[in-house]
Amino acid sequence: MLIPLKTKPSKEILWVIFELIIYVFIAFIFMGKALLHPFAMQVGGGGDSEQAMWFLGSFWNSILHGQNPFISRLLNYPGGINLMAVTSILAESFLIGPIVYLCNTVFAYNLLFFINMVVSCYLGNLILYKLGSRRWMSVLGGGLFGLMPYLSAHSLGHANLLTVVFLLAIIYMSIDIINKNVTRPLLYGFILGFIAACQFYTSLEVFATAAMILLILLGLMFINARDKCSNIFIPINIKTILVALGICTLFILPGIIELFWGPFTISYSSPIQPRNFYVNDLLGFILPTPIYLLHGHATTLIASKYTGNVAEQNGYLGLSAILLLFWAAQRLWKRRLTKILFSLVLISIILSMGPYLHILGYTTKITLPWILIEHLPLLKQALPSRLMLYGDVGIIILIILALEDYLNNNTRKSKAITLILLISIYLTWLPIIPFPSFQIPSSNQALLRNGAFYDNLKGEPTAFFTSNFNVVMEALADGRYAFPVVNLYGYAKNTPAMTSFKQLLEINDDSQKYLTQNYLAALIRLTKAKRVIYIPRSKSQHEISIRNNLEMLLGKPLIDQSGIFLWKVPNNINAVWFDGEVWDNNYCILNGKASWCGKNWSVNTSGQDAQITITAPPKIFRPQGISLKIKKGASDQSVRLKPDESIKILLNANSSINFSSEDTFIPDEIIHNGDKTHLSVQMAIDIKPEVK
Hints:
There is one protein chain. By secondary structure, the chain is α+β, with helices and mostly antiparallel strands. 47% of the residues lie in helices and 15% in strands. It folds into five domains: 1-148, no CATH class; 164-266, no CATH class; 271-407, no CATH class; 442-568; 576-690, Jelly Rolls (Sandwich), CATH 2.60.120.340. Strand 14 and strand 15 (635-641) form a beta hairpin. Helix 3 crosses helix 4. It is globular and about 90 Å long.
């Protein structure tokens, strides 16, 4: 036990049982139906959860095959992904990954959720006890760490964000450093450094925002408690901190190297997610979203107007917690810890609202402090709403310490009122019952080792046409990563052309319009897929049209079972395709209509001739015209085009042509449309009949 024994062993056992009952019960509330079917149903909704399942087994799969665990070529074929650049939860993969091989990925994910929830409650309990709370108060306060709104929201599927045990462990150990309770600095520093590294490999975003919050905290400590700050850094604490920094650096260094200089590194020059979108609405701090038990029709209607989505609406506190927060600050204001924590909570809340104040989904013109730091390198990809993690932790600590102080009256009335106030927070923070869960489709069984498709897929690069590739990722992990896939759920390094083509793999309402035979053939040739799987959403005419196009291109399916169709790609499939800096977002180039190109791109043909039309940009973009370098076979030539001038190039079957241009322009600099892409010319391709 980390809590000193101040009671008899028999009573201590009763305390432990009491703690476990509360914390396990809280975890069970969130697990909902997944508790009854832990091998086939997951906590939360579908989407990011299945992606996390794939990541859970990836570390040990790489190690067992003698591969680099920081990269994978099993997704985004023929390229790969840099696992440090995505939400790969490498720490959890290292710790929980073996469960994937002993049981299955769904159970491993549910177990990770359960452990995180129970341990988070227990760590919260320890933090409160170490700060001076009496035992039963710290136990009940620990339960609030499991129910804090930040966790409730991200329990819908963000494994990298809901795993907060490492952060809470760092807070717990830091209290010992501040209170000078470290007796073995080397061991303590090693453990603290290792835990910090685990946080780094769990979520780079939380690691970066935690570092920012730490700097703010040190600044507040300096302002509010200068003499206390100077007393912290006695030799034993300096040694502990230096060891922790050294160990953490040693462990995270491989990940940093892979992130910035490893294969498939992504250049995040601009934010991936839309700016000023995933922020907390002012009303969101008071009114519950649909994932809380006390929500109603009116609150749901209001919440639907907020920007972002339910999983990212992290601001909810409820009137009870808000009123108690200000009461706690007023009651304990003479304490320096209160001033520091309350200031940190307010800063976290304000930063979580993003660059502009949002009220009922409406973006006001009131600027907020986040606008000053949102472009910093380590915070550029951070979503403001998630900063409520630190706000929630601070609020729980302040409220519990204030109630503890109130209990010093030592009357029945004070105990009863304290209990009622705690229950009021519990009730307002309770999630909806049953909490959302997701049933893994039984059709996934066909992709596993004993499934009908496994032998035909093993080792073969496969393209999945499906509306739910995230669900497929669960089967890929349970199938022991037997074959690489063209698809990707998330972000990876690809050319603009490859990115456009791979978006066609996601079946949606526009698929019938875009998935023509020309684009299907081009996609297959560009991605070098050897197998194609189609998983229709329904038997609608729309879905039948996609299947017919696949059959006309690839022939009859090799296997048709469980609502899944499998084709083996012929070796001599005819196609015209392009790659490089081509922005064909409207899928028009292969239909003879023009779209923009950048600095370097290429066109290839197999079994078909193609006529390529290149058109210079209008005078407004390039008044002096534009120059191109064209390499076709062994010949090179340079071409100068006047504004709006076009040239036509015939590309024979089974050949390729490369284009390059240094005369690019950025539309936003000219017409201020927000487009900062480097563009050169427009290209269209007319495909000629197949060559016999």
